[in-house]
Specification:
- The protein is mostly beta strands and 163 residues long.
- It has one domain (25-157).
- Helices cover 2% and strands 49% of the residues.
- The protein has one helix and 13 strands.
- A six-stranded parallel β-barrel has the order 6-7-9-11-10-8.
- The chain is globular, with a radius of gyration of 19 Å.
- It starts with 16 loop residues before the first helix and ends in a 6-residue tail after the last strand.
Length: 163
């Protein structure tokens, strides 16, 4: 039945494109602190863990080591600082992602974004400016005012270097 030269190893299989790229999702990480849809918080949040928001927050959010995800039902009126920020709901305020900021297709942001990497998925709405800088190029990156709705399947914004 099997040819001698064929290898029958069920652990080896071709990788499909869908397996190699995992899209950002608005579901909470397994160990994230969660602010549920019925909760409303006025004040500042500080921490060092992942945070998933489905409720309403007004104030400031600062997660030193963690990521912040604003779910589809989340409404945030605050400046947000975290390692990674994903927005599927609404944010009115500035976003500072030390690594990455992703606006998912249902995400709406009115404010400025600062991160090393910024991605706007198809359907995302954004009004503000984007500042992308790496640690070594802090003085040479530029800002660009952007407004509108993402039209492609996903758009990554790259920085323009000026000396």
């Amino acid at each position: 039945m099997w040819k001698k030269n064929e290898v029958n190893d069920s652990s080896v299989r071709p990788v499909t494109p869908a397996e190699t790229v995992q899209p950002a999702q608005s579901t909470p990480p397994a160990r994230a602190a969660r602010i549920g849809g019925s909760l409303s918080i006025k004040g500042d949040l500080y921490g060092e863990e992942d945070l998933f928001i489905e409720g309403r927050i007004e104030g400031k959010i600062m997660m030193k080591k963690g990521s912040v995800t604003v779910g589809e039902k989340g409404r945030v009126h605050a400046d947000v600082e975290a390692t990674n920020i994903h927005v599927a709901g609404e944010v009115e305020g500035d976003l500072h992602g030390r690594e990455q900021v992703v606006l998912l297709e249902t995400g709406r942001v009115q404010g400025n974004i600062k991160a090393k990497s910024v991605t706007l998925q198809n359907g995302a709405q954004f009004k503000g400016s984007i500042d992308m800088e790496s640690a070594g190029n802090a003085k040479s990156s530029s800002s660009e005012v952007v407004s509108g709705k993402a039209n492609g399947s996903s758009q990554s914004v790259s920085s323009t270097q000026r000396i």
